[in-house]
Structures
1.
Amino acid sequence: MTAIKTFVLVAGEASGDQLGSALIRAIKSKNPDAVFTGVGGPAMIAEGLQAWYDLERLSVNGLVEPLKRLPELIRIYKGIRRRVLEQQSDCFIGIDFNFFNILLEGSLKKAHIKTVHYVSPSVWAWRSGRIKRIKRNVDLMLTLYPFETQIYHDHHIPVRFVGHPKARQIAVGEGHDKQSSARNDRSISAEALVIAVLPGSRGSEVNLTLPDFIGAMVNLAQRRDGVVFLIPAANDSRKKQIERILVEHDCDVSVTVSEGDALEVMTAADAVLVNSGTATLEAMLLGKPMVMAYRLGWLTYQIFSRLINLEHFALPNILSNQTLVPELLQDQAPATNLADALCEVLEPARQSQLREEFASIHRTLVGDLLTDAVDPIEALMSSRNGFE
């Protein structure tokens, strides 16, 4: 009789929840009786994860916020480690959430638990020798993007490019082909100028980013008649937070706040104003012109700016190694600059160019979770000392 395999997965935010749910589905296709425990959100729980902690408790941003929440994070860290060792799990899979998961992976690896890290940290962007810790702590790295594998090959760390599930979920050209129906679903006319506004999935991101975005919305509405703004909140907590901030800033433009429908909202849009993360990928896969702006807390920015060596930070620009879309960081992103950038990407020639460039990138990101992730994970679990 084949032993039931046990997996512990830990995600720290909404995007990790989506990645984790796709990975659980892929693992279940070959191991239908497998048991999944750990930390995840609604998507992972729907796939069968037995959640030990609420995903929101791990959803922290930057460098300073984790310090403020350190006692709680330490309690959760110890609780996860204790449970993994008690049930002698076959494999631990940390999904993104790097500062927490890579530390946990190191502790578990010392206890002879096989460790997988899903979503490469931006080691290629850091000046320090962060790669050495990954080599000590991680048995197998799974990357979302093809360019990320080289640094692991260079340091003899087992790695697989698995592609991004969003690139498989969204068909090339879908954002253009389904725009009319997405607008009909929201009773928005085909002639309206629609801007999707995505200020982030974490509470701290929304607090830092949304005021700048509101200023850009007001500025753009003064330049263009009949602009419709749509803000898809990641969850109910973010929806309430966004609505409160809109009231506090006396935002008097045409804006609708919804929940959990970012893909549909971006499909309906002509352009996207976005802060970072998975939403930039989704906007690119949908072929939507975008402006990316990001604001960190002052101290976090001072630390990051001294650690990171990066020419671009908007995902389409990183993947193409050129400036495809405007990217504005910290004080580069006042309302006027954001509105100017939106007007620029809304020019018909720029929209056409971006759709073509995004479609080309899209095709490189598809991958196959079953052969590129599940098979290597199973090979790792069946080996004595990791990959030979």
2.
Amino acid sequence: MPDMQFFTATVLLLTTSLLSFAEAEGFSTAESPSLGYSDVFALYADLQEKSALGQYQEAAELGVKAESFLITRTNESSSERADFYFLIAKLMSAAGYYPLDTAIEFSEKALRLQSNLPNPQSDKVLEAHAFYLNSLLRALRRSDTRTEIYSRLRGAVTQAERAAKGSTSKATGDLYRALSRASSTEKRAKSNLKTAADIYSKTLGIHAGLTLSTRIQLARFETDKKQVKRLLEIIPLFENDDASLQYKAAAQQRVSVLLLKQGRDEESFAQNAAAYETLKILGAQREFDIEAFFPVIKDNPEYPRVAQRKGISGYVILQYTVTETGTVEDITVLQASPAGVFDEAALQAAIKYRYLPRIVDGKPTRVIGVKTRITFEMI
């Protein structure tokens, strides 16, 4: 994935620069009896190796254990300590390492240390702001203490907005993207995302994958009809590097769904087939998984009045065929609970489902034996 590739590249760059500094200063990399490291640079080397092998959780746990080791061997105002906290926070993110409090704590320390360095590097500070915002946003989705997290998020947004003013680097674009996700209104979110797109366009170029993917995100603020127009303008601009092709395939799949919703079936199927071809070029086509084959257009079933009046809940499991045009036929009830109560409502809902057809060798293909479960629950 592009985010993971970017993360790995960041870790490699960070650790390589620190090791180069260690060699220049003549630090030893021999092991010591305590944690097995004589200095922080040897620790970074080990973290780098674990990261390169995809051992993110192991690396993150090592970083947490090594915190006291780092504190005794670096100054509070040193870039080494600031970089260490930032690295461990990223490893936690890559590993899905929680508890959330620990991940946020390291992100917060990284931001504070980067901001308070005697000669802070502006891009590193901006990157730390963006990462802290994203950490809080992830916590907001998962945490039980949403009020506390939301309060911290609002303060973080204010600080990040001050830090971003007057800067036009790629890191500033990243920060505005984070600010867009953290915005409290749609208008503010759109404005921040547009600023990010403009900055990427100037710093990376109009054909860069990040520029175009941000423009695709920006198009989501438009009506479906206008969004289709924007996406069809953007898709031809993608270049053929791996990151751009992934964004391109996602855009093609998105526009195919929107076209299908507008009843423009032939255009939708053409874009869907083009997305398959893009993934084929990228070598990212996954083996077809019928259990992950879902309708892109579906309406909620009508709740039977009798069941609603009696407070009855239940479910129906259906099996059917998805045709070459993405419609549903040959529907049968495999299981229902309670029997006969929700069957008809489920059948009436499923007959209206629309799928993006499965593509095999460039052609749409029928899929037999698709199953779905429709749940009826009183709320």
3.
Amino acid sequence: MGHDGVMAAFTKRGTPAAIAAEAAGLNDLARAAWAGGAPVVRLLSHSSPRGSRLDTALLSPASPSASAAEEFARRLAVTHAHCPEGSRVFGQAPAGLVHGGRTGDGVMGAAPLPLVAPDSRPRSFGEFYAEDRLLAYLSAARANGSIDEDGARVLHRLADRLREGAFDAPQPALVHTDAALLHGDLWSGNLYWATRESAARGAVGAAEREAEGRRTGEGGCVAVLIDPASQGGHAESDLAQLTVFGAPFTDRIYAAYDEASPLADGWRERRVSSTACTSSSSMRPSSEGLTAGRRSERHQPTRRQSQPASRSVRARAARVGLRRTEACKPAYKPRTGYISTSSAFSSAATSRRILATASRVCRTCAISVSANSRFLASNATPSS
């Protein structure tokens, strides 16, 4: 709280589409949090559709803990299962983006994120992922030279495998709909470790944790969802994205989630595949690949958007060569040990390495290939 009793706010600016999508996602996740789901940062105000500003509560950082990670995992399982309407399809838009049976696209970084209305034709995970998370970005990537004809053929083969169901798996036990309610962009930087006191004020669904801390005399922290790209999807996608730059206590998170909502057989192998694919497709960043969208205020490092980096994160950042550029502050800042959302990976060499991974991914996981295809389509430029 400020000195005048008004809650301190974190202000984000972006396109009207991005602001509308994030606000709608925060509202959907808040409804799940009220029902026992994972805490989510409190939306204070937003000015879409014609404006471009969103205010959320300002949280105070805390050191992550194993107990907070496990509590988050149990509550994330409830978020994924939350569906008072009784049905959810893959790619379904947050409620606030659906008007008169029609829906607008979401936004992921600088790229549009295809979304569908609740009454859309049900699809399998593989059909949805091939059409809306892989091939939807291929034309733009081909047009800007990031992917050549051979690479496009690889991605089409991967899309065929997806449609055939090679990567389909049942949802976790608590999810009784085709698709789960996802955060949608749950990399480690979008899981904010907040003090219990600030979370009690600034996060929906966190007040009981602060009350528990007062009873036990413990300090501690609460893991809070921020910056969502909410949609209907496979629950394991959220879990897999936590491995990007290495969220702390991921083993504890998986174990606690599996205890609360048992994962389908083979989840350990799927986890290894997605982690390996993410690691092998983490490329050297290039300043030439940055766009105006990536330089927007939304992606500038801030105290709230940055988290202390673990040793494994620092090692990975060093391994992929993250460094300062003129266009953007670095994803890894050696002096402070912080990770921000403003890294960019580009160039034709990057594309070739991604596609080499994609050639092998026909027997592993499509998650990171889709993310890289989407990123290349919106941010990459051909290298000289």
